[in-house]
Amino acid sequence: MRVKIHRLFELFLEAHKAQPKVSVVHSLAESPRLRDFIGDLDPDLSLDWSGQSFLGLPSLREKVIERWGYGPVCRADNVLITAGTAEANFLAISNLVGPGDEMIVDVPGWPQPLVLGEAIGAEVKELVRQEELDWMFDFDQLEDLITANTKLIFLCNPNNPTGQILDEKALSRVVELADRVGAYVLTDEVYRGMEWVDRTTPRVASIYERGISTGSVSKVMGLQGLRTGWMISRDNQLLFDAMVLREDTSEIMNVLGEAIADIALREERFEQSVKKAREQGEKNLALISQFIKEQPQLDWVRPQAGLIGFCRLMTQVDSEQLSQRLLKPPYRTFVMPGSAYGYDQHIRVGAGGGNESEIVRGLSELKCLFKELEE
Ligand SMILES: Cc1ncc(COP(=O)(O)O)c(C=O)c1O
């Protein structure tokens, strides 16, 4: 399988090379430091593997079910610990979709299924989210895309980059359509737990027997570097097949990642860190929202969840031209152009990282560039 680089990753690489002074793209909560866990880590922890289960540390799997509310329908046996949501998605897609099979992917959305589906030689069909429908897709389109050859429907929920939530009623409709042809539904739930509206993100693994929920400690907990995530499904054969494939990718779990995640998910710690992440996220989102209100060049459907949002850009220049100018002196600021998702007149902004002053600086640089463009 030969994977082509996606524009989103290319843009991250280019921005990294440009060494911006400020970024308004962060998608995860402020990251804790190693010192926050040292006192609770067992110095005798063997850096071999836990030796307890090939699915991953049992106590961690139990905590994932409890903290993210997948019980009682799903149990710890339905969880496979993986190297992040990214590996969980990879294992599921690779197991379920072969050359010539069809898969449906929401757009704009997380590019991983587009890249992998194409590399596998599958027919990847795009389910288009529409801005005028608050970035929801049309069910008639979904019905038209589904055929007897559809193996997988991949949705990013809450959605990256728009932050919109597919509620339980809508997800149940997707499941009903998928069930007619025996297709799996995978929802990438990495942004679950950071909802800003009175709506929880449904868990597809709890709703559908061929449902797969993927997630990790990367976003809400800010623990991206642990590379610790999960795949949850009641289809234990699929979980077994994923574990077999993992033998040829990361092989076993990241022992230190599991140990730290297991500490981070202790009830009290978990509640405290989610509270802090929510407070910071809410503050930063309010800042961005206010900025957008004041800038005639920008508009957005405010995200319902997560730390990123997708803004419509009303300037003569397109998103890549804008972001390239913004990366250069005197601005040296990074915002993600919407072209990363195939949308030339949008930009993706992020309220993560916890650093309010960085966001304020970044937005003020963007404002200066907007002024310069008017001159
Ligand atoms: C929607 C989505 N899925 C998956 C990932 C990868 O997350 P992880 O660190 O859990 O592998 C990201 C990271 O940005 C993401 O935005």
Q: Work out the helix count.
A: 13
Task: Find the CATH topology of the largest domain.
Answer: Aspartate Aminotransferase, domain 2
Name of the CATH superfamily of the largest domain: Type I PLP-dependent aspartate aminotransferase-like (Major domain)
User: For the record, what CATH class of the largest domain applies?
Assistant: Alpha Beta
| Beta-strand residue percentage | 15-25%
CA radius of gyration is: 20 Å
Give the N-to-C terminal Cα separation. Answer: 49 Å
Instruction: Identify the bound ligands.
Output: pyridoxal-5'-phosphate
Task: Walk me through what this model shows.
The chain starts with 6 loop residues before the first helix and ends with a helix. It folds into 2 domains: 7-27 and 269-374, Aspartate Aminotransferase, domain 1 (Alpha-Beta Complex), CATH 3.90.1150; 35-265, Aspartate Aminotransferase, domain 2, CATH 3.40.640.10. Strand 4 (123-130) and strand 5 (136-137) form a beta hairpin. The chain is α/β, with parallel strands linked by helices and 375 residues long. 40% of the residues lie in helices and 17% in strands. The protein has an 8-stranded mixed beta sheet, with helices on both faces. It binds pyridoxal-5'-phosphate. Residues 27, 84-86, 110, 156, 160, 188, 190, 216, 218, 224, 229 line the site of pyridoxal-5'-phosphate.
